[in-house]
Amino acid sequence: MDAQQATTNKYGKIWTRDFILICLANFFIFLGFQMTLPTLPLFVKELGGSDQLIGIIVGIFTFSALLMRPYAGHALESRGRRFVYMFGLGVFVLSVGSFAFVTSIAFLFMMRIVQGIGWGFSTTATGTIATDLIPPKRRGEGMGYFGLSGNIALAFGPSLGLTLVDVITFPQLFLICASGGLIAFILSSTIRYKKVDQSEHKTVAVKFDIFEKTAIQPSMLLFFITFTFGGIATFLPLHAAEKSVAGIESYFLVYAIFLMISRTFAGKVYDRKGHLYVFLPGTVLIFGAMLLLAWLPNTAVMLIAAGMYGLGFGSVQPALQAWAVENAPGNRKGMANATFFSFFDLGIGLGAIIFGQIAFVFNYSFIYVTAAGSVSLSIILYIYLVWKAARSHNRQ
After folding, report:
1. Do 134 and 142 meet the contact criterion of CB atoms below 8 Å apart?
2. For the chain, which has fewer Cβ within 10 Å, the N-terminal or C-terminal residue?
């Protein structure tokens, strides 16, 4: 018996039929989503929108998703995993498909709100479904593998979108993006979902119950990290064009490759040694990447930044998600995931909107200087939380 087989027998199997299906469904919806990520700002420009409008249209999507996540978290425990996930996928498909018929920024703005509703429900559900299917003793490792499904889509989605937009129309592109969500919808219909807990301890929807308190700390740390992503996803293609730096398609590919590399070991490090050995090295890499993007003298520097950001974000995000879920009560895992992704969305949404204003007042380079400052705040907050926890432990 080899070491891998011994680990499987002791802690449980990760790669079950249903786990593979949820990974495939996650891949296809993320592929459709990632293809719109760098192309939507170009579409807004074509419609006559400014940098400020680009930031608002990108940001409103995440705020829409943010508002839906608490409802999705409660529905996961009351209506079940299948209903929430398939409802979210259906709304996503219809909204992205509608982009093909957009002729005004006002209509695009409205449909981005609808898209956020679908995204909020589907991504809150998929993280919870994956958590259900992964053995508890291998949760960090399993969430790292699950994250690979989205990362593989990231490896091809942005580059594919930017390549296709040069040879087909925006309406054709958006219909292709919607088809990714449709494939995810079909796959999700075959998954055997965990049944909702019918005990007296089942979550009851409360008007002001909008987050899971045990998930707040890792979610706050995530907020300052995903704040940086709003600047990359929204303005990096425009920043590279302004600097006359070629190869923006390669940036997303290199970023995704290193993201996938990090997922093969970061989860195991988290399971064995804890978040300290994952978070600090990851955030230092992200900080360095932001400074390189602010400088951006040539393609080589851009690709180095892509690798650093991929390694950093790929290490930090699944570790923080595992941290957010592991301490939540059994009937609050859905709300823990909802809390985690609410802060994820809030970071990206505020980043996109604020960076749109920065680009208008200053320039694209200053976006990434500001993003580096946000990463610094995350590091400072983490050190404080670790110090506070150690002090509390010593008192006991």
Report:
1. yes
2. C
Q: For 80-102, how does the pLDDT look when each residue is reduced to its tens digit (9 = 90+)? A: 999 999 999 999 999 999 999 99
Identify the residue whose tokens are 């978040």. Answer: 275
Q: Which of 176, 174, 65, 175 is nearest to 123 (CA)?
A: 65
Coil, strand, or helix at residue 1? coil
Measured CA to CA, the distance from residue 229 to residue 347 in angstroms comes to 8
For residue 201, the model assigns a pLDDT of: 46
Q: Please report the sign of the dihedral spanned by the C-alpha atoms of residue 71, residue 76, residue 80, residue 86.
A: positive
Residue closest to 356 by CA, chosen among 223, 238, 226, 225: 238
Here the tokens at position 359 are 């680009």
DSSP character at residue 195: P
What are the pLDDT digits (tens) for 20-44?
A: 999 999 999 999 998 998 899 889 9
* Inter-residue contact 247 to 163 (CB < 8 Å): no
Half-sphere exposure of 133 (CA within 13 A, CB side): 24
CA distance 43 to 47: 6
Whether pLDDT at 7 is above 60: no
pTM of the model: 0.77
